[in-house]
# Entry
Amino acid sequence: MNSRLFFLAGLALAAPFCASADVALPHILAEHMVVQRGLPVHVWGKASAGEAVSVGFRGATQATTADQLGRWSVSLAPGDAGGPFTMTIKGNNTITFNDVLAGDVWVASGQSNMEFKLRQADNSAAEIAAAKYPKIRRMLTDNKVADYPMEDVTGQPWTDINPDNAGGASAVAYFFARHLQEKEGGVPIGIVESFWGGTPVEAWTSLHGIAADPALMPIFGEWAKAEEAWPVAQSNYERLMAEWNVAAAAAKASGGTVPPQPANPNLRPGGPFVPSGLYNAKIAPLTPFPIKGAIWYQGETNANANPNGASLYAKAFQAMIRDWRRAWGEGDFPFLFVQLANYKANPSGPI
# Structure
């Protein structure tokens, strides 16, 4: 790119921040959120370059100025559990959240067992009817993959747990939050649900975290093989889908049983198995938000990854935990995990 084109490209990138712009916040900062007690309350976002921004919370105010890219960030003093509190962010516009709680925030991540909904659990009807917990809040991130760490994540916004929405919550995360609140004397609990069934641990680890351990280099080697094999795999999938469409139509017409639909290969460019792809889209945007810890369920997809899947996972899982702790910058926060006992690799079955 020549210098003139580079200059014009720079203007295009900066354009949203050159004119007067409203203060904007990432989706995790929103009404009904829970902020972590005992840690600085971090609030950040975007505005016009040079715009004065202030944040008021629990009787204190911090002010700053947006940088040349329009980014701004403030941290307010830690406080005890409680609320509801009001948070006000002022710039060219004013944003007010009237229902902010302070308590313990946990990230719930992993595969299908963490994704498993409360409505699918035993005795679900009674559990959902009794799920009246205004001080347990949850946020769910959308399933997306990214090539580089994102600054924001979309999804279902913060909401309290009640019978109208509890059925869609992660069952494990819900019971975990309820148990914690009971043991902690009613402290507000926030759960950020960020999971994707059947995904491998390397997808949840940053490139920095994988590359930091030479023993994890086979991850990149296996992915390179998968990318090379992708055109054939995709062609086979399209052929199988065409055959399935014919068979499914015939079964419906005759009143027969529709055969199972062929599975779309996960090992595909832009898919949920890409190393670091889920970290970039579903974890990196959360790391500026202080938390108490993380809970993780499963890792069995890695048993199918390659002939040394289990032994490699032992290192890769530790690398992911170290990576998350590094990214949040809060030290060795609690990282609780569950894995299935006596799991047997079954590439064609659910994980």
